[in-house]
Design a protein that fits this description.
Structural class of chain B: alpha+beta
CATH topology of the largest domain in chain A: Rossmann fold
Low-confidence stretches of chain B: none
Strand content of chain A: 15-25%
CATH superfamily of the largest domain in chain A: Thiamin diphosphate (ThDP)-binding fold, Pyr/PP domains
Strand order of the largest sheet of chain A: 3-2-4-5-7-6-13
Mean pLDDT of chain A: 96
Oligomer: heterodimer
CATH class of one domain in chain B: Alpha Beta
Number of strands of chain B: 5
Number of domains of chain A: 2
Structural class of chain A: alpha/beta
Shape of chain B: elongated
Largest sheet of chain A: 7 strands, mixed
Radius of gyration of chain B: 18 Å
Helix content of chain A: 40-55%
CATH class of the largest domain in chain A: Alpha Beta
Number of helices of chain A: 13
Strand order of the largest sheet of chain B: 2-5
Number of helices of chain B: 2
Radius of gyration of chain A: 21 Å
């Protein structure tokens, strides 16, 4: 298969993937650090490289509203945003999922105000974790590209019909140049194919109403359908990953295990910090320490069973959250890992670290500190609440 | 007979309803005041027909025919807009 090597930033590669998908509609509003995605894409529209109708709107609330309208009308629809922009879309996120609209959105992870900050953490998308959107996180620029191409097919699959957000870490990925392999345009077109038929509001033969008032007697049944769609999506995500691997040789799972199978001490995290962690793990391994990593890629749906199987034989696990739950106990990823392991008879010792808020840099030394702490927890037992890594005490 | 309510598996997906369901709901029973037509004053300009938000003004051959009390909610817009005071609002319960 012809693969082209390119040097692109996370934002450039998102825009490139969108160009290759050639959606019918993109409705977007600029926000740092995601602006370039739709800015570059709007240039593709202006240059006639895509057939897309570009809707420049006055806010992110309007952006998602326009996406909902166009997707309900039958158009293949994409957008991009970050942080406050995602927050402003909030009520529309739930509506997109509730109406089962396969919108695909590139999200650049950025801290939420206040205080105002434009750099990376995962508070924005973690807040949207129960909105009914599928969430796929990327470690690097290559994954961002691969995830976005697959997202279109996942979203539109007849058993799923749910919106998907694909994320990159703000600035760390969005603005850093990396080498990645991309498919050629015709291969992407073949892969995403013609969207499967859905019932849409612009069908003059069989007109429909969507989003009608749904009170005590039917709302619950419709929400149950959304839950089922999310249940179904796991199988579909894996099937599409397999088809994508045939095309590219890159096989993706819900999570990546790195030197994990015989590990006694492991960290679990999401996103670009995985790269740093792998360096540290290689070094510690060369010193004979049995350490490993589990990097979560698909956070919604969350594969509790596979997660349990992957982690239950480990002695001590440190879950690193790049978002604080502000619940006086732990971060959101920790809650999920804890739930996944509750059914396990082996029950590894779990401990939680909040790190990297507002773009606070995460160095190898920080990962070293976490492993040292895990070794200590292994000897002395666990402390209860989340620990804050990299904050000035 | 009690209405058979569909289970989540039986319901059409994606919150989709066949269009035109509002026809099934006789919203006229929400009304507390009703419009009454005074034919002597009416010039058949059909401004009432244009303004009625519920399509509850029926016409025939370009002339006012009657109110459709099955759907008229008694909002009074027709009476307000009528340039000849040919529509008045009267309480439902006299």
């Amino acid at each position: 298969m012809p693969l082209l090597k390119v040097a692109k930033t996370g934002n450039e590669i998102f825009a490139e993937a969108m160009r290759q998908i050639n959606p019918d509609v993109v409705a977007a509003y600029p926000i740092t650090p995601a602006t370039e995605i739709v800015q570059i894409f709007s240039q593709f529209v202006a240059d006639g490289l895509v057939d897309t109708e570009y809707i420049a709107v006055e806010s992110e609330h309007s952006a998602m509203s326009a996406c909902i309208g166009s997707c309900a009308a039958g158009a293949r629809t994409m957008t991009g945003t970050s942080a406050q922009g995602l927050a402003l879309m909030w009520e529309m996120l739930y509506i997109a999922a509730g109406l089962r609209l396969p919108i695909v959105m590139a999200v650049v992870n950025r801290a939420l105000s206040a205080p105002i900050n434009i750099h990376c953490d995962h508070s924005d998308t973690m807040g949207a974790r129960d909105s009914g959107w599928i969430q796929i996180y990327s470690e690097n620029v290559q994954e961002a590209y691969d995830n976005l191409i697959q997202a279109m097919r996942i979203a539109e699959h007849p058993d799923v019909k749910l919106p998907v957000m694909v994320t990159t870490d703000g600035f760390i990925l969005s603005h850093c140049l990396e080498v990645a392999e991309i498919l050629d345009d015709t291969e992407v077109q073949k892969f995403v194919g013609t969207p499967p038929k859905r019932r849409t509001v612009l069908d003059f033969e069989q007109p429909i109403t969507i989003g009608a008032l749904d009170l005590q007697d039917y709302y619950f049944e419709h929400r149950r359908q959304v839950a089922q769609a999310m249940n179904n999506s796991g199988k579909v995500i894996n099937e599409i990953a397999e088809k994508y691997a045939e095309l590219t040789g890159r096989k993706y799972d819900f999570f990546e295990k790195y030197r994990l199978d015989d590990a006694e001490y492991a960290i679990v995290l999401i996103g670009s910090t995985a790269g740093t962690a792998k360096e540290v793990i290689d070094r510690l391994r060369s010193q004979g320490k049995k350490v490993g990593l589990l990097k979560v890629r698909v956070f919604r749906p969350f594969d509790y069973l596979k997660m349990r199987q992957a982690l239950e034989n480990i002695k001590v696990i440190g879950v690193m959250d790049r978002a604080d739950g502000l619940n006086s106990f732990c971060g959101p990823l920790y809650s999920e890992i804890c739930t996944a392991l509750y059914e396990s008879e082996k029950k590894p010792i779990l401990t939680n670290y909040i790190y990297g808020l507002g773009g606070r840099e995460v160095k190898e030394e920080d990962i070293d500190l976490i492993f040292e702490d895990l070794f200590k927890v292994g000897r002395e037992g666990k402390t209860v609440n989340a620990k804050y890594i990299g904050v000035r005490e | 007979m009690e209405e058979k309510k569909l289970s989540w598996k039986e319901l059409p997906e994606c919150d989709v309803l066949e269009a035109g369901t509002s026809k099934n709901f006789k919203t006229g029973n929400w009304r507390s005041v009703k419009p009454v037509h005074i034919p002597e004053k009416c010039i058949n300009c059909l401004i009432c027909w244009v303004y009625c938000p519920d399509s509850a003004i029926k016409t025939k051959d370009g002339k006012f025919l009657e109110f459709d009390y099955d759907y008229c909610k008694g909002c009074g817009i027709c009476a307000y807009e009528c340039p000849k005071d040919a529509i008045v609002m009267e309480p439902e319960k006299k």
